[in-house]
Amino acid sequence: MALRIPWDIEEAVLMLDMLLKSIDGKLTRKEAIRQVSEKLRRRAVNRGITIDDIFRNENGITFQMSALEVAYTGIKTKLKQPTKLFVETVNLYRNHRELYEEILKEAENVVEPKSVQDEFCSYLSMQMPTFQLSDAYLMLSDIESFCLERKILQNKLFETTDLEAIKRVVQTVDSNRVFRFTYKQNLKKMSTVIHAYYAFLKSYKPDEEKEVKPIIQDAIPSLPDADSMKQKDDAVGPQAISVPVAERTKLTDQEEKQKFNDWMLSSGMSKATITSYMSSFGQCVKSVANYKLCETSLWNVANAEDASHIYDQLFGISEFYEYNKQQHNRFSAAFRKFIEYRSGGSPASLKPSQPTQFAVEKKPTRRKENDPVLIRYKELLDKFFQKGFRMESSLDMKKLRRFYQDQYGTELSDEDALVCQDISSVTILHEGKAYLPDSMLSQEKKEKLLQYIEDKFVSGCDAIYYSALFSEFEEAFQGERIYTPEMLKTYLSYINKGNYVLQRSYLAKDYTVQMNPEDDIREYLKEAAGPVEVERLAAELSYIPEQKIKFALSTNNDFIWNATGEYFYEDCVHFSNSELEWISQFILDGIEERDFVTGNELVEAVEAHFPDIKEMYQWITPVGMRNVIGYKLNDRFSFNGNIISKYGEDLSMAEVYAKYCRKHSRFTLDELNVLKQELGSTIYFDEIYANSLRISQNEFVSQDMAQFDVEATDEAIGRICTGQYMSLQEIRDFGTFPYAGYPWNEYLLEHFVANYSQKFMLLHIGFSANVCAGAIVKQASSCKDFNDLLVDILANSNIVLDEDSALEYLRQQGYIARRRYSDIGRIVTEAKVVRSKKG
User: Fold this and answer.
1) What is the rounded average pLDDT of the residues 580-587?
2) Helix axis angle, 253-266 relative to 330-342, nearest 10°?
3) Computed from CA positions of residues 486, 488, 491, 493, in that sequence, does the dihedral angle turn out positive or negative?
4) Residue 241 pLDDT > 50, yes or no?
5) Three-state SS string across 546-613, please?
6) pTM
């Protein structure tokens, strides 16, 4: 009996993702259905659900995807109507895109669980700077090769999770003389990275051992942004509070989420609003954990007073405070709702407090500055530990004591803790290492750095991002001991004598400054009064990282894209009310006639009717004109690329082609080429084949004019296709094919196999205007995608297996139309493997 497991939000989002790809022409509908079925079945297995052959199979997915398509397009059919879940999923996609993408990511993670290597990569990225990760993996590769050759490892390193086996690898790196001689230059780093892998495996759990929690519809996974804001410097920060939980029965986080969700539901809030609150508060929970503001999960904070205290601490952190502002205070609103819930329904009247500034704590000293012992420590650190002294390393401490004995002829008698205390008083501490300030940056470069900062502030700049400052001095830092923007921040905090204020991601001229890069970009573009290239913006606003500038330009609608890498401010182009009314009427007339207007025809009409506009703004491109009109009229119409449609309809290029097919009972390829020119697009053949019937190279008719005898046609194909597959071009004689309403030809055959056959499927690169290429494949075949098919074809051929020969052979046989295919290198490699196994 089939499993009756209700659909959940993650399944619906996965299916909508595939549906959109098929609508946009990236996948055929059949391939989208196949992938959805495969993903949902694999997802269920990964979550510990026992499934049968019927669970989320392709027939069922076909039915459900049609219902989801109705929810997305709004076009009703006689097929199944969309469920409430499908309607909410489409609403999530259209109105809460960031949350939709996060749910999709979470769902994909369940479908394709992370490998040991991926998990270790995430772990390692928290232990060392990003720029060192590639070196770490090269070292692990060398370790793996050495151990495999000597049978210390039986399998590859990341396929080995047995602690005893990895312990033998660690011992090899640390004590094997051959290894240590071979890799003596990188020995310390290699030891560090293999010890890190061993430490990682101690806490690692394979996916099958991880707890799989049931998905609660309204408890949507939280966004991951807090990970990128995780505090690396723990010298200063709010103190974590201890929350008593013994007063009540302690619930799991999932149970607490459900209770909070139910409370909001009982308060009369809509599910969409609850979903938004749950997502935003989930971000707060993650950030509280990252910043170590609470000893337990925020979900287990039992009373409003403790929750309010944590609220003050979280929004007192500059980086999170700013992020909340950028997100229109959605995190603070969600947190206040949680406090209201904990207070029994009394509204919380909190406001995010002003953020605290970043500072590096200067350790107190038990010795005077000119104490002989401190002077000796400085000498030793400068001579032997220029790359930093690891405060927690017993090895570095042993070295220091030996160097002290050798250098000064007397034993260092202080205990380790006292030595570390003394060293801390004369060094800068960063990520567990102690650096002498003078060894981090030369005096000359230090003065240049401080002068640059002063000049920026004097010239009117209020703040400078550390990453921008690091980029400006990256070349000067070569050979110095400042490796990252975070390290530069630590150094600046140590040497700061009150000349500026250090926040989490930038330094400011005073406490009143709150950095908002969008405002600075906006002001600059206003003054420019025309298009400005991104490179010029980055040079003029050098205190803002170029990546932040690009992000701001792409996410703020009032920054108008004029050409590649070029933007202008929307207010630089002025339209009178009468001009905007004429433009609006032109668009309305076009929509009335054929449901949409193209940006090309709109710009042509505007330039023809208002020659003064073209004369006044000679610098604006047609795309820029379309985009600025889109900004001015975004409350009246939907602008989606080059397609303008009714407000809220948001027609895509694929939907335009689909509507065109449904409106015309007969049309030609020539007419499609005219439409293509008008739209400034390619022809979306997947949509055309899904909404019409191709009866010849140049002719298309309505789908309801098809007269296929499916069973008899499949039998006719079966008499010719005696193997698992054959090329489309192998069928030239249609004498045994039943009447189909139109004369049989390769285009009618291609369409039948793609959309109507019950026994065969079409595997190909895609439909095209003038060539039919691809394969007719039995549905029971082991070849489920085009790459699998090509591997099998080449492996069973007699040709020499190189890329050129393979492409020519596939073209001659009719499987591809041209001598190019992006995956041909991998396919040839796999074909060689298959052929070698056959002997």
Assistant:
1) 93
2) 90
3) negative
4) no
5) HHHHHHHHHHCCCEEEEECCEEEEHHHCCCCHHHHHHHHHHHHHHHHHHCCEEHHHHHHHHHHHCHHH
6) 0.43
